[in-house]
């Protein structure tokens, strides 16, 4: 017993003939308590027989059970011209869900049913009843097919193929190789190499003023696709009349310069756009025009 507890027994108590139940009373009348004191008891054990045995968790022991039952049925109903043949095996152990195999054939139809927490088809495919998914492991990859509600970290996956090391609840469209989702774009495929691209929103820009002086073009903006990391921009002069780039390392920029009376300037610029994630680069070429709009 732990400190503070003592073992008390009451033995050789003979029950009257016909006794069907007993009542245990714990009497503290002989104890001496200081003000504010308390008393407690634990591990009460009532058992048949004249001698008390050491306390044991018999309740837990009795709760453990295991059984296998088999049922079969074959009936022919001549009056209604119907017949049924059924066979059922059920294995059940305490603490687990039962596993059931059932086969039924009747005049109205037939079926085979499997019921269990997990149902295996061969060595590497299992149906998981809790998630309604069919999971097949092939080497270090797994294919998961959802047969019920969507699964995954975002609860939007219907099918997923990827590394077997990723848990079902952590699967996403980005850490899988291929799959289908319940939301747009409904499919994903990370096995196809994605080509990085850069495109200007217009092929050329222009700017004008009335009379000689400084002038700049409208804004031109470059958009990118399939970038896997940060993107850098490097604008530079190619050819033509002298102009400058107002934002040489930005996706959006203008071109500026000065014009004389009645002058029109033309120049070509290029921007080297690089995806630092993949190392892929694209060069974009645009034209710029600056002019004096004064009437002749």
Automatic annotation (TrEMBL):
This is Ig-like domain-containing protein. It comes from the Bacteria. It comes from Brevundimonas nasdae.
């Amino acid at each position: 017993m732990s400190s503070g507890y003592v073992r008390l027994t009451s033995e050789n108590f003979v029950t009257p003939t016909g006794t069907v139940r007993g009542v245990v009373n714990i009497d503290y009348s002989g104890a001496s308590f200081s003000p504010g004191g308390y008393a407690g008891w634990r591990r009460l054990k009532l058992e048949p027989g004249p001698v008390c045995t050491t306390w044991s968790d018999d309740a837990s022991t009795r709760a453990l059970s295991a059984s296998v039952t088999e049922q079969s049925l074959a009936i022919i109903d001549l009056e209604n011209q119907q017949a049924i043949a059924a066979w059922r095996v059920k294995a059940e152990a305490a603490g687990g869900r039962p596993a059931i195999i059932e086969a039924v054939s009747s005049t109205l139809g037939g079926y085979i049913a499997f019921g269990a927490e997990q149902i295996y088809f061969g060595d590497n495919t299992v149906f998981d009843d809790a998630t309604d998914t069919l999971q097949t492991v092939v080497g270090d990859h797994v294919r998961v097919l959802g047969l019920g509600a969507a699964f995954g970290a975002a609860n939007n996956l219907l099918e997923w193929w990827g590394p077997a090391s990723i848990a079902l609840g952590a699967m996403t469209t980005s850490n899988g190789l291929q799959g289908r989702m319940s939301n747009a774009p409904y499919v994903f495929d990370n096995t196809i190499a994605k080509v990085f691209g850069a495109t200007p929103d217009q092929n050329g820009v222009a700017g004008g003023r009335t009379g000689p002086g400084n002038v700049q073009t409208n804004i031109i903006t470059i958009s990118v696709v399939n970038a896997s990391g940060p993107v850098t921009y490097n604008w530079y002069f190619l050819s033509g009349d002298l102009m400058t780039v107002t934002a040489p390392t930005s996706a959006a920029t203008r071109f500026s310069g000065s014009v004389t009376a009645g002058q029109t300037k033309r120049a070509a610029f290029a921007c080297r756009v690089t995806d630092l994630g993949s190392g892929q680069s694209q060069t974009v070429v645009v034209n710029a025009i600056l002019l004096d709009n004064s009437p002749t």
